[in-house]
User: Which sequence fits this backbone?
């Protein structure tokens, strides 16, 4: 395994290099801007038993977890193998050491536990960007079953209580943060966290991608007393670095535990909704390896001027940059002029965006690749939408839906990237959202194929006054993560 570079959602880069018995994670940006990461940290990762081919053989002990227990099926000491590629349930890792920057240059993290959580999150971000292993399980009962008919399991990695993670009460704190889990939900009888109850923690692919990364990424402040140059330079000179006290990406959605109160809108009883992100605010960013660019989502703006993009971009030369010189109203007028778009959205009207801004159950979104606009979306609560009135009890209180307009021809081949990112945001923005809905027109056959490939399943057709719709739903329990 050669060096790899991780592009984090906030634009920071981490280089992962093989070292003896593990991997070294090093920040590429420590000297260029405010950075939360230490100089580096080392993890130990290995495969326990199995043959590393991705099959999770519960009969050879030690690695796979039983469906009803947090302990290995076989208590025999597992055999360790060098990590070469992910397996379904045989991989284990822990943080073995940390190299912190000089305290003269950076203030220590206010919460060491939070810093460890961030390093573990980045480690898992790297791990779940690796090629996914086969999901079939080889058990004693399924040995003779053809591979296509074998039972399937979740992709998991075990987080061991070892190295840095042996700190007092550290594993319980990480579990309460929602970063790691255990299948053993008993209180236990031990007075400390050193017993077997905390020895078998894990993270699944599904669990990781449904945990908001913004809860774990944060920024250290430079120690200005020991900075010879102008305070904040070059740290403060990085485009997109927020000023002190300024709201960072998605902060308006950081705390989602609103008390559920109810109100009535147009004879529909529904929960009181949290305010959406602000006009022009970027609320989602993610580097998509298959595209090689950053996908960003921001709230549309009524400003007559272009909305400047200050978020992360890739190393690719900018293309179609002229689109960044248009206001959002100008973009929508341009896109509606395309016959392909107007066939589904109709002709552009001057108050199109104003009406979208006034909606109490939805908000308008501009999608961007490396800051270049490519499409328009409307994210809505199903309960209050016209869709909710047609499906009745099938609409849960916190179901989300989305309307889609892709204006740029060059962006049309990237459906899985932005569609699964919209799902990613919806499921992370509020953990009460159990499903995401789409209702494209039935004659939009090409888009419906993409939707089904992304995991949406057709539930019915609906005869709206303005269209015959294909109604599909993607449930949280079936979603493993965004397209990479």
Assistant:
């Amino acid at each position: 395994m050669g060096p790899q570079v991780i592009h984090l959602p906030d634009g920071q880069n981490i280089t992962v290099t093989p070292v003896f018995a593990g991997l070294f994670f090093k920040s590429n940006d420590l000297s260029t801007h405010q950075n939360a990461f230490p100089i580096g940290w080392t993890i130990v990762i290995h495969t326990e038993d199995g043959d590393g081919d991705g099959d999770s053989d519960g009969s050879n002990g030690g690695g796979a977890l039983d469906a009803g227990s947090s302990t290995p099926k076989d208590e025999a000491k597992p055999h360790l193998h060098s990590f070469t590629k992910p397996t379904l349930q045989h991989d284990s890792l822990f943080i073995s050491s940390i190299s912190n920057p000089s305290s003269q240059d950076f203030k220590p993290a206010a919460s060491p536990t939070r810093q460890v959580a961030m390093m573990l999150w980045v480690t898992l971000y790297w791990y779940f960007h690796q090629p996914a292993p086969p999901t079939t399980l080889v058990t004693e009962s399924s040995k003779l079953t053809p591979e296509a008919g074998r039972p399937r399991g979740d992709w998991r990695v075990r987080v061991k209580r070892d190295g840095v993670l042996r700190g007092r009460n550290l594993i319980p704190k990480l579990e309460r943060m929602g970063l790691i889990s255990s299948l053993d939900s008993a209180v236990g009888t031990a007075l400390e966290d050193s017993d077997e109850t905390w020895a078998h923690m894990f993270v699944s692919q599904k669990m990781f991608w449904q945990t908001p990364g913004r809860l774990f990424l944060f920024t250290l402040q430079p120690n200005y007393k020991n900075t010879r140059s102008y305070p904040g330079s070059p740290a403060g000179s990085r485009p997109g670095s927020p000023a002190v006290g300024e709201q960072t990406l998605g902060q308006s959605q950081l705390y989602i535990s609103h008390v559920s109160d109810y109100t009535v809108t147009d004879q529909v009883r529904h929960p009181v909704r949290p305010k959406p992100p602000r006009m022009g605010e970027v609320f989602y960013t993610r580097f998509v390896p298959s595209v090689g660019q950053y996908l960003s989502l921001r709230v549309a703006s009524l400003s007559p001027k272009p909305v400047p993009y200050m978020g992360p971009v890739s190393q690719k030369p900018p293309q179609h940059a002229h689109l960044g010189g248009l206001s959002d109203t100008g973009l929508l007028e341009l896109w509606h002029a395309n016959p392909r778009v107007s066939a589904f959205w109709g002709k552009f009207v001057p108050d199109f965006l104003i009406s979208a801004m006034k909606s109490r159950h939805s908000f308008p979104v501009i999608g961007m690749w490396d800051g270049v606009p490519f499409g328009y979306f409307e994210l809505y609560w199903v309960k209050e939408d016209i869709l909710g009135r047609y499906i009745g009890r099938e609409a849960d209180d916190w179901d989300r839906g989305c309307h889609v307009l892709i204006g740029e021809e060059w962006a049309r081949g990237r459906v899985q990237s932005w569609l699964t990112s919209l799902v990613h945001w919806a499921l992370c923005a509020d953990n009460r959202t159990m499903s995401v809905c789409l209702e494209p027109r039935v004659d939009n056959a090409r888009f419906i194929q993409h939707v089904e490939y992304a995991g949406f399943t057709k539930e019915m057709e609906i005869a709206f006054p303005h269209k015959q719709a294909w109604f599909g739903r993607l449930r949280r329990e079936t979603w493993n993560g965004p397209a990479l």
In short: The chain has two domains: 4-215, 251-478. Residues 251-478 form a domain with the Aminopeptidase fold (CATH 3.40.630.30). The CA atoms of residues 307 and 327 lie 7 Å apart. Residues 112-127 form the longest helix (16 residues).
